[in-house]
Amino acid sequence: MTDTNDELSRRAARVMPRGSSRATLYVPPAAPYAVRGEGAVVTDADGHQVIDVNNNYTSLVHGHAHPGVTAAAGNAAACGSAFGLPTEAEVALAEQLDARFGRDLRWRFANSGSEAVMMALRAARAFTGRELVVRLAGAYHGTYDQVVAPEEPGVPRPAREATVLVPQDDEAALHEAVQVHGERVAAVLVDLMPNRAGLRPVSRAFAEAVRREADSVGALVVVDEIITYRLGLAGLQADYGLQADVTTLAKIIGGGFPVGAVGGRPEVMACFDPEQPRAIHWGGTFSANPVTMAAGSAALAAYGPDEIEALNRRGEALRARLAQAGLEVTGRGSLLRVFPDDPTGAWWELYRRGVLVSVNGLIALSTAMTDEQLDTVGVTILSVLG
Ligand SMILES: Cc1ncc(COP(=O)(O)O)c(C=O)c1O
Q: How many angstroms does the Cα of residue 26 sit away from the middle of ligand 1?
């Protein structure tokens, strides 16, 4: 027997600040507790069931407990969940990613997207011998000091000062930031459709300017595809014709387990080569653990070009439906975002009526959803926000 939502939140309030361990899951007065997930449906501790279009912040592209992914993870765990040796599973996932990107890259795995971003920027700084990172204002890249919002408390000044912010799609501001700082710029870091900034794709002209400006001063282009990778076999960058020097991945590539990855040009990734005299010494006790790697491989194997296209089409149809009814809705393919006037109130109302979205209105579809469930999601969102 599990405690009810109220009992669990009372227990949590005694042992965690405001009863919460993830800022992104906090919804006042306290979030309900998940007990079980099957396909597109989550059951909470009160027995209430919701159709899940949060999908753990976009990471569960096949919904919950996908049989192939669960079997892969279970089999791997039964053979030992982590070793003081590498395993074939990490080689296989790196090969799979290489094939999906279709170019010669080198990979390193981590345990979260934040860690992947940290690793990518460390590589950019080591490769260029410079410190500054130019990035988009309002975009979220995880919890690493150099990429959190400038007003975030607890960040050392040097980390804050090593970042230059430019507004999305403002080519003049990008030009000025890169040219003023010139040979101090290690990287331009960009998410081509930053969720926190509104989930609007950057303009093609801006994406071209990122490459042009970075090249003009010998800086690297780091593309954060941690959310957007689900939109295409080689992420969203392929659609822009932009080849990142370093790409960060996470979320869907772990099949629902903690993961991060950095993929980059061989000469940049050589920074991690342990035989190099000035190698970046990066370990990670659970990095590339075989359970995550096997689950990730199974999830990606079941998410090829046909599945990606089909899921994106379903997302476009939902977006068109919501937009036709007058809602402001952004995003692309299987990623959508709505903007309620009262996000907390709307979140609870949707939840009560059986739909789980992200607290900031982000919605991510999964291949586990039936057409009927998708229709229910559309009807419910329109009845709450329309
Ligand atoms: C674009 C982007 N980058 C980085 C991160 C950080 O990933 P993680 O939460 O796995 O640390 C996120 C998380 O939502 C993200 O959306």
A: 16
5-66+304-385 matches 67-301 in fold: no
Ordered by start, the domain boundaries in the chain are 5-66+304-385, 67-301
- Whole-structure pTM value: 0.98
Question: How many Å lie between the centroid of ligand 1 and the Cα of residue 317?
Answer: 26
Q: Whose CA is nearest to atom 13 of ligand 1?
A: 142
Ligand 1 atom closest to Cα of residue 250: 10
- Looking at residues 358-374, what average pLDDT do you find? 97
Task: Kindly indicate whether the domain formed by 5-66+304-385 is annotated with CATH number 3.90.980.10.
Answer: no
Closest ligand 1 atom to the C-alpha of 191?
Answer: 1
CA of 242 relative to ligand 1 center, distance in Å:
21
How much is the mean pLDDT over the chain? 97
Q: How far apart are CA 61 and CA 45, in angstroms?
A: 24
CATH class of this structure's domain 67-301: alpha beta
Which regions of 177-333 does DSSP assign to beta strands (E)? 185-190, 220-224, 246-250, 260-264, 329-332
CB 244 within 8 A of CB 222: yes
d(CA 368, CA 42) in angstroms, rounded, equals 12
- For the stretch 80-96, pLDDT in tens is 999 999 999 999 999 99
Ligand 1 pocket, 254 CB below 6 A?
A: no
State the distance from the centre of ligand 1 to the C-alpha of 206, rounded, in angstroms.
22
**Cα(248) to centroid of ligand 1, in Å?**
10
211 C-beta closer than 6 A to ligand 1? no
Q: What is the DSSP string of 266-306?
A: HHHHGGG-TTSTT------TTTT-HHHHHHHHHHHHTS-HH
- What is the pLDDT, as a whole number, of residue 1? 63
